Amino acid sequence: MQGRLRPLGSERAWLWIMLAPTLAGIAFGTAGSLLASGVLSLTAWDLINPPSWAGLGNYARCLGDPKFLAAVRVTLRFAALYVPLCVALSLALALLLNRGLRGQGFFRAMFFAPSITSAVAIGLVFTWIYAKDEGLLNRLLQVLGLRPVNWLGEGAIFYAVTIANVWGALGEGMIVLLAGLKAVPATYYEAATIDGAGGARKFFRITLPLISPTIFFQVIIATVNGLQAFEYIYMLTRRSQGESTMATVVYLIYRNGFRWFSMGLASAQAMILAAVIVLLMLAYFRLEKRLVVYD
Amino acid sequence: MRRRMGYAVLAASALCLATLASCGGKKPAGSIKALNWGTEQEAAVWNELAAAFTKKTGIKVEIETAEWSVYWDKINTLYAAGTPPEVFAMDAPLFMDWYSRGALASLQGYIDREKGFLEGVYPQTLAAYRTPEGFYGLPRDFQTVALFYNKDMFDAAGLGYPDESWTLEELRAAARKLTSKGPDGKIKQWGLQADLWDIETFMSEVVWAYGGEIMSADMSKTAIADKMEPWKLIAAMVQEDKSIPDQDSLSQYGSDAFLAGKAAMITTGHWMVPSYAPVSFKWAVAPFPKGPAGRVTSINSAGFVMAKGCKNPDAGWEWIKYVMSKEGQTKLAELGFAIPTRRDVAEGPAFLEQAIKIDHKLFLDAVEYARVKPVFKGYDRWSSAFGESMAGIYKPGAKVEAVVSAAAQAADAALAGAGK
Q1: Of A46, A47, A133, the CB nearest to B249
Q2: ipTM above 0.85, yes or no
Q3: Are residues B261 and B317 in the same domain?
Q4: Residue B291: which domain range?
């Protein structure tokens, strides 16, 4: 629909002027660091001495390292749960808060609050909620006559950490999807109502197709965020010695690069993660043609 | 020492103004960066120390604090940016990682110029920083590990307090008696908090007390699994007696169940004394219990190193010299957590007659039977791999031999990959 809008005359110049800061940021910040990581991944660099050429050694080491492979599995498994939960719950929230409820603005603000709160503070609060013996959640379970769970122990920790991450991301997803919902013309619903369509029919035939580009966007954002999740994982799974009980790829990058003097190896791991993300994006864009409705 | 909580942080980042002093000036001047890890209280003492130093020498020192893990990120980043600080605090086990990469400046020339400078410094604390090319660091303070116990819990259980006659078997028996469950079957009180991740505060002492070793003599191979007796004792305490809490349980008490009044004993260093001072229960300290091969504790130091290529090395040395002096060490003793490395200060009122009344002398006497915490390149990586595998000991039914052997293997694999 809006794709047909074209800048005219002097608008063209203004367009570039307005975009310049962002483009510069992308060129130097994003592309620059990507390029730097790519070069560093082919070197051995301890941050102290000049990097020395290592060829593909860092990559070979990654692929032969069970810890790294385990981290890749954890990361993919995490994202596989995180992305659908994140998108589905954000959508549910957006739908609920788009119905003109009383206090809607308040609820929107509350659900968005985690996005603007320090992840470290939230992580700390979650450690209290999840604590084994004195935790809020287990107290609640016991009041309800249920058995307490060692939330941050082996097994449960994966779900506990995923839930915390999803909770933290709901606000942002909700805002984006709300914007999508707002853009659906009310006339479509009116026409459907006159034709006798019910709520579910309207949702699946009008709402879902019309906001599918927004959902697609949200899936992409959630995937990238999920594969790069760090703060809550750091706060909830870090042991006193700095090791994580649920080490993801980003966690290993941090440990290798900043604690163990292996910036080359960390860069190789970052490049592998970037490659995984790119591959997923390519797959997504293929799917987009079939699943996403434009116009 | 690397995990000490109260002892964690201090980092100083300063505008390292290029030497404003005129070219002819012989005396070091200008300003320096001096980074430490430590708490805010520690930062206050460091700032006081820096103020006294500036008054004396005219050299400005800027102190800044950072938490332990952030501290190392910061140092690494400063190096990567080509602006390393003049002086930064070093944990002895990590020294080799920095020295072997050529990151540090030699202090030997300075030391040679100061006659008798190292006289009266505990030799065990110097060992970590001595290289074939002389000293590349000096100890700022040191730590020995002892047994801290909650007197109230011993009284309630009707048990006699730990003393120098205690063996590790007696420690186990007492820990078992001091462990109690609530009506819901959950453990309400543990006998002993023992760190089974880093070797410093419990595992190395027990291994040594049984005549075992942590590393091979040349520090190239993990020797920890060569003798199983110490591990059988530890495993029995964890698995049969359940007197040692696991990390999941500990994490809900800020990783310190002793402080939270949930564990009757803990083996740890003097650095915890200020943190334990305000608690509501009565506590005291005893020497680390003996094993079949005698009594052994661990000694470790925090030191100062100078970055190679820093802007103002001469002024940096003046700061190190001052902190190592009798005046500096006396002031540092006021921090309450560390033990001065100068014998005359450690054995004087500044350390022995602190406001917190416990047997401080015990920590000095421990030097006699202490072994130096192993120092080798890749320590952090080695320790992480070892600790991660050792966590397997908490799993119900885990075979101790298998867990310890796997941990030693993981540690060796990590060591092989360190620094590449």
Answers
A1: A133
A2: no
A3: no
A4: 144-298+374-417
- Partner A contacted by B101 (CB < 8 A): yes
Number of domains within chain A: 1
**Is B9 among the domain residues?**
no
Contact B252 A132 (CB under 8 A): yes
Instruction: State the DSSP H helix or E strand holding residue B202, giving kind and residue range, or none if neither.
Output: none
Distance from the Cα of A120 to chain B's closest Cα (Å) equals 13
What is the Cα–Cα distance from B373 to B207, expressed in whole angstroms? 12
Q: Is residue B4 in a domain?
A: no
* A132 contact residues in B (CB cutoff 8 A): 248-249, 252
A250 part of a folded domain: yes
C-beta atoms of A61 and B381 within 8 A: no
B5 belongs to a structural domain: no
Using a CB-CB cut-off of 8 Å, the residues of chain B touching A258 are 72-73, 76-77
Tell me which chain A residues have a C-beta less than 8 angstroms from the C-beta of B197. Answer: 239-241, 243
B53 and B121, same domain (yes or no): yes
Distance from CA of A172 to the nearest CA of B (A): 28
User: What is the tens place of the pLDDT at every residue in A143-178?
Assistant: 999 988 989 888 899 999 999 999 999 999 999 999
Are B199 and B127 contained in the same domain? Answer: no
Query: B229 and B83 share a domain?
Result: no
Establish if A248 touches chain B: CB-CB under 8 angstroms: no
Encode chain A in three state secondary structure. Answer: CHHHCCCCCCHHHHHHHHHHHHHHHHHHHHHHHHHHHHHHCCEECCCCCCCEECCCHHHHHHHCCHHHHHHHHHHHHHHHHHHHHHHHHHHHHHHHCCCCCCCHHHHHHHHHHHHHCCHHHHHHHHHHHHCCCCCHHHHHHHHCCCCCCCCCCCCHHHHHHHHHHHHHHHHHHHHHHHHHHHCCCHHHHHHHHHCCCCHHHHHHHHHHHHHHHHHHHHHHHHHHHHHCCCHHHHHHHECCCCCECCCCHHHHHHHHHHHCCCHHHHHHHHHHHHHHHHHHHHHHHHHHHHHCCCC
The pLDDT tens digits of the residues spanning B150-180 come to: 999 999 999 999 999 999 999 999 999 999 9
Tell me the CATH number at A68.
1.10.3720.10
Q: Do B198 and A61 touch (CB under 8 A)?
A: no
Q: What is the pLDDT of residues B392-411, one digit of tens each?
A: 999 988 999 999 999 999 99
Considering its fold, how many domains does chain B have in total?
A: 2
- On whether both B290 and B407 belong to a single domain, the answer is yes
Residue B274 and residue B361 in one domain: no
Domain limits at A187? 40-45+54-117+157-291
| Cα–Cα distance measured from residue B256 to residue B275, given in angstroms and rounded to the nearest whole number | 10
- Helix H segments across B20-105? 40-57, 68-80, 95-99
Quick check: is A140 in a domain? Answer: no
Q: Would the CB atoms of B79 and A48 count as touching at under 8 Å? A: yes
* CATH code for position B215: 3.40.190.10
Q: Would you say residue B15 lies in a domain? A: no
- Asked if B397 contacts B235 with a C-beta cutoff of 8 angstroms, the reply is no
